Amino acid sequence: MLSESEQIAHLKLTADLAGLKVPELILPESHHVVVHHIRLHYLDWGAKGRPPIVFLHGGGLNAHTWDIVCLMLRRDYHCVALDQRGHGDSEWEPTADYSFESQLKDIEGFVEQLGFKRPLLVGHSMGGFAAMGYTMRHAAKMAGLVLVDVGPELSMDGARRIRDFVSQDRVLDSVDEFVQRAMAFNPMRNPALLRRSLLHNLRQLPNGKWTWKHDPNRHSPNFAIERETRAKQILDDIHRISCPTLVLRGARSDVFTDDNAKKFANALPRGCWRQVPDAGHTIQGDNPRGLLDALQPFIREIG
Question: Any residues with CB less than 8 A from the CB of 135 and at least 6 apart, and which?
Answer without folding.
Answer: 121, 142, 145, 240, 241, 243, 245
